[in-house]
Amino acid sequence: MTVPLRALLAFFLAWCLSGLSPARAEPAQVVVGTYVNKIEELNFRENKYVVDFYIWFRWKAEGALAEYKPLESFEILNGRRDGQAAVVEKKLGDMNYAIARITATINEKWDLRRFPFDGHRTNVRIEDAAHDASEMVFVADQDNSRLGDEIQMSGWRATNFTNVVELKTYRTNYGDTSVATDAKSDYSRYVISWDIERTNMGAAIKLLSTVLLATAVAFVAFMVKPSDLDARFGMGVGSLFAVMASAVIVSGSVPDSGGMTLADQLHMVALAFIFVTLLLSSFCLRLETHDQEELAFRIDHWCLAILPLLFYGWAAWEMWKVAHNR
């Protein structure tokens, strides 16, 4: 037998053996969809909110899904189920169907850099705890899933609903020593998302009105003679405490973090400007007591024009940027 003939025979034998090996089974598909009824209790301080929604599943009860109970095995990765009601389970032809109304508390790390002109993209992440992606994958029911038309949130509206399916890989053996340390597992993840946006500027006006008006009072001090100590310094010191009180109130609406919101920046800059007014008042008082009253008045007039222009110009620019660059 020649060498080429041996090679041809080996190739033919390998091809025949490969045909005998079992083909890898495709994972079963489970159609999943959601209808969001309510979004409430937005809590920026504690990084959470409550959502009320219907979730449904459609699947064929065969193979790995012969005993599948989706309403029992699905889990919310970024929150917890608080309640389940209105459960319906039935057959739709050769498909199984299950639906339930779920109330859940969702944990959300809010991006508050633009607060109180902020908007957020939030989501609910759902996986099945009983089956990994080798056995089952979700298919999003995009035609029937949406936000409800009666969602009401004071000062907010929900828009831009999406529902998609992703593949999540977990690189761990979960402490199972019978499995390799570098083991990994894939799970099908169903994600529903939407935007929440402020409907008006009312909340921002209420939160920032104190700091804006208190700083204006500090600037009015330049209209008072430097020698009128009680009136001139009283306005500055009163403004300083008003802005500090406003900062405490605003900080109570957001979680403690290393970052600064727009409101924090506004309060810090306002405190700096008020401190400058107090320094200038002291300087002008010194000039007046040294028979340089005309120079003191001239400095007051320039400060009365320049400092408000700088502060309110900067504040308007920062607020315009965050309000129009979401």
Describe this structure as you would to a colleague.
Strands 1, 2, 4, 5, 7 and 8 form a six-stranded mixed beta sheet that branches. Strand 4 and strand 5 (95-107) form a beta hairpin. Helix 3 runs antiparallel to helix 4 (229-251), helix 3 runs parallel beside helix 5 (262-289) and helix 3 packs antiparallel against helix 6 (293-324). The protein folds into two domains: 24-198, Acetylcholine Binding Protein, Chain: A (Distorted Sandwich), CATH 2.70.170; 202-324, Methane Monooxygenase Hydroxylase, Chain G, domain 1 (Up-down Bundle). Helix content is 38%, strand content 32%. The chain has 326 residues and is an alpha+beta fold. It has helices at residues 3-20, 70-73, 202-220, 229-251, 262-289, 293-324, and strands spanning 28-43, 48-59, 74-76, 79-92, 95-107, 119-128, 136-140, 146-147, 156-170, 185-198.
Describe the SSE topology.
Layout: H1 3-20, E1 28-43, E2 48-59, H2 70-73, E3 74-76, E4 79-92, E5 95-107, E6 119-128, E7 136-140, E8 146-147, E9 156-170, E10 185-198, H3 202-220, H4 229-251, H5 262-289, H6 293-324
Parallel strand pairs: 1-7, 1-8
Antiparallel strand pairs: 1-2, 2-5, 3-6, 4-5, 6-10, 9-10
Helix pairs in contact: 3-4, 3-5, 3-6, 4-5, 5-6
Protein traits:
Acetylcholine Binding Protein, Chain: A; alpha+beta; 38% helix; Methane Monooxygenase Hydroxylase, Chain G, domain 1
How big is the Rg?
Answer: 32 Å
Largest sheet: 6 strands, mixed
- Mean pLDDT score: 88
| CATH top level assignment of the largest domain | Mainly Beta
**Helix percent band:** 25-40%
User: How many strands in all?
Assistant: 10
Q: Shape from CA axes?
A: elongated
The ordered string of helix (H) and strand (E) elements is: HEEHEEEEEEEEHHHH
Strand content: 25-35%
Contiguous low-pLDDT stretches (5 residues minimum) are: none
SS-derived structural category? alpha+beta
Structurally, the number of domains stands at 2
Kindly report how far apart the N and C termini lie.
Answer: 76 Å
CATH architecture of the largest domain: Distorted Sandwich
